[in-house]
Amino acid sequence: MTDRPRQAPMPASLRQGRPPRHPALTVRCPHCQAAPDMRCTTRAGRARIQRLDPCPARLADWAQTTAVCPHCQVAPGTPCHDSGIQRPDSSPVHAQRYTEATETAA
Ligand SMILES: [Zn+2]
Ligand SMILES: [Zn+2]
User: Fold this and answer.
1) What pTM, to 2 d.p., does this model score?
2) Which ligand does the CA of 31 lie closest to?
3) What's the 46 CA to ligand 2 centre distance in angstroms?
4) Which residues are within 8 A (CB) of 28 and not within 5 positions of it... i.e. 6 or more apart?
């Protein structure tokens, strides 16, 4: 019983205004099943803890859905590839596509 999360009082400055929502929250998370507009969660013990950032799988899904890939030139909704070869699950989307998706969402 040493891994209990510590509860720190929230500073007043953090309560004012809403933090900017990550644009990837518009898609469902394929990893933790968070619905659109819901934050990703992670499991610690039996509790579900809200993640600060979306799961990597959700970011990849969002980038793929939203943006044309500047690297391999595929259309939104089409998975990235390297010269016709599917990308590995650990890195399914080219890094440039995240940047492109962020600019599309802005
Ligand atoms: Zn998630
Ligand atoms: Zn690509």
Assistant:
1) 0.77
2) 1
3) 37
4) 34, 35, 36, 58, 61
